[in-house]
Automatic annotation (TrEMBL):
Source species: Mammaliicoccus vitulinus
Modified residues (Phosphocysteine): C8
Protein name: PTS sugar transporter subunit IIB
Chain ranges of the PTS EIIB type-3 domain: 1-104
Pfam family, one: PTS_IIB
GO molecular-function terms, A-Z: kinase activity; protein-N(PI)-phosphohistidine-sugar phosphotransferase activity
Transmembrane regions: none
UniProt entry keywords in alphabetical sequence: Kinase, Phosphoprotein, Phosphotransferase system, Sugar transport, Transferase, Transport
Length: 104
């Protein structure tokens, strides 16, 4: 099972997206654990996840997340969520983005 983390300012704006991603995964019989949380909490939880997707409004935080992962000895893909998929609350599209980053 793959663990996908979405980070945003307060963890609230991605909660609906997580619901849509879980629905898409269930429809496609894909076993994943998906969670959204604030950026502050995400820094502390990096070691529990396989991939980190950052809300488009926080793209400026990507370098900080990459540095934090390196400092913790964590190798994981870290990317900004596609802004079109994010705006459309396209759970299937964001799930595909996450799985693609994981080589799935």
């Amino acid at each position: 099972m793959k663990n996908i983390l979405l980070a945003c300012s307060a963890g609230m704006s991605t909660s609906l997206l997580v619901t849509k991603m879980k629905e898409a995964a269930e429809t496609q019989d894909i076993q994943v654990n998906i969670k959204a949380m604030s950026s502050d909490n995400a820094f502390q939880a990096l070691d529990e996840y396989d991939v980190l997707l950052i809300g488009p409004q926080m793209r400026f935080m990507k370098k900080k997340f990459v540095k934090a992962a390196e400092e913790q000895g964590i190798e994981m893909p870290i990317e900004t969520i596609d802004s079109v998929s994010y705006g459309r609350i396209d759970g299937d599209g964001v799930l595909k983005q996450a799985l693609s980053l994981l080589g799935e």
